[in-house]
Amino acid sequence: MSQRTNAQANPDTVAPAIRPSPAVGPDRSAGPHVDLAGLLNGWSSDGHGTLPRRLAHALRRAVNAGVLPAGWRLPPERRLADQLAVSRSTITEALDELRREGLVDSTQGRGTFVAGGVTPSPVGTRVADHLRGGAGIDLATGNPPDLSHLPPIAVDMSMLTAVGGGPGMWPIGLPAMREAVAGLYRRGGFTGPPRLVEAEQVHITSGAHQAISLLVDALVRRGGTIAVAHFNYPGIFDIIDGCGARPASVRTDSAGMLPEALERVIVDERPAAVYVQSGAHNPTGRVTPLGRLRELAAVVDRHDVAVVEDNTLAPLTFPSSLPRGAASPTTMHDLCRIAAVASVGSLSKACWAGLRIGWICAPAPLVERTMYRRLGLDLGPSAPSQLLALGLLPHLDSIVAERQRQLEGAVEFGAEHLRATIPEAMVEVPAGGCVLWTEFPVADSGPLVQLARRHGVQVAPGSISVPGRVPGPFVRISVDRPLDLVREGIDRLGRAWREFSAEAPRVLA
């Protein structure tokens, strides 16, 4: 009697095993029949939090794993409550959480459906343009050209047992590697100011590019939008295209995204996420001042929009560009109080791109969503690469300091030589990284870039860094090379410019 009275007062306190679901026939309009109660068996005792949160977690796992296919219609809320032996309010609250994430859609009179669809493979045309190589001096790619700044380390494969590697197949990274990255965040410096991070919040990826791709795929529905600064990392546009989404361009000035422009894009375009870069920006090399960053954080907090924060170049922000006493740039994660922030990090720029080690640091449910998307592409990061990374991490502070010293000298040398060789070009010394974002007095830098290749130097047109590849006056020049090579490459670019300007009338941008 007392048990029945409690159940009537609060049906959520009765486990599904105690109160069996009534026999209900399949919903013919819902597509393939799925025994949802059987599929979610044990959900109420799995994990922590309220019953609605546990139910949302169980449904999320089923959707991300593809068990509940795109377009499948869930039973009506009242029927689902009967099947799972919970109150209707529990069902409503769980589905509201999934609706906010874009995992399900509800239409009055039709029901609730699993959202999404098949996502095509990324095309990668922008990145391919300056990664595929060619003859001559390469000043297009921005990766460390050699390993001279790294300490000697070796991989002892027997260490796999010591670090819990087992068979080496860990979809989101070796436990030791995930813990090591969490430790980086806890001590601060390389990853920004210290913050409390647990290993379960870390997903080890094959570089930052894959990390960003997984996050965009997890956060932005096909046909949806993601807000991005107008000038940006070329790969973000390849990723957005490959995920079937579209970029919502945000106007910028010398300090970065304009807060009022971001707010307008959020109101008008309703993006699922905002992609931002902390530290030295790719390709401009600028660092967003703290005051501007606070304004941007206030905007995304006000609208509760998820943030994908790319910290790849943050460690290579020059100390001279940081506020006095700061060891690293302030991040959106440090400033946002409401909006969820997923951070992306990498060893590619500080150590070596060939390691292919990056990571996602995000709330654990989002990390799990990215894992399911990854399993459609590969079965996890390379175990030997992670062992190499684990050997490098104790030396990371000195590695970063040496890279900063090398790059600060390279960009100062490159900018000075570029001004002397091509006085018409406008270039500012970046606050970090290795790129000289250079403006020429032309409407379209594409023909100049093509001519430069014939003169034996590869640089990238600025059009690869804007939505729609709209032509413009900018050229992206990487100087992360031996200085003799940088000098010769700029000399060749100078010869190409003189030929170009002599044969074609210059059009002011």
Describe the structure.
The chain has 509 residues and is an alpha/beta fold. It has 3 domains: 2-114, Orthogonal Bundle (Arc Repressor Mutant, subunit A); 154-395, Aspartate Aminotransferase, domain 2 (3-Layer(aba) Sandwich), CATH 3.40.640.10; 398-503, Aspartate Aminotransferase, domain 1, CATH 3.90.1150. The chain is built from 18 helices and 16 strands. The protein has helices at 2-9, 36-39, 51-64, 77-84, 88-101, 125-131, 159-162, 175-187, 208-219, 234-242, 259-269, 290-303, 332-335, 364-374, 383-392, 396-421, 446-454, 483-503; strands at residues 104-107, 111-114, 137-138, 202-205, 225-229, 246-250, 252-253, 256-257, 273-277, 306-310, 341-346, 358-361, 435-439, 457-458, 460-461, 474-478. A 7-stranded mixed sheet has the order 4-12-11-10-9-5-6, sandwiched between helices. A 3-stranded antiparallel sheet has the order 13-16-15, covered by helices on one side. Mean pLDDT is 86; it is low at 1-32 and 117-122.
Annotation keywords:
509 residues, alpha/beta, Arc Repressor Mutant, subunit A, Aspartate Aminotransferase, domain 2, Aspartate Aminotransferase, domain 1, 3 domains, seven-stranded mixed sheet, three-stranded antiparallel sheet, 18 helices, 16 strands, 39% helix, 12% strand, disordered N terminus
Give a quick precis of the structure.
Helices cover 39% and strands 12% of the residues. With 509 residues, it is α/β, with parallel strands linked by helices.
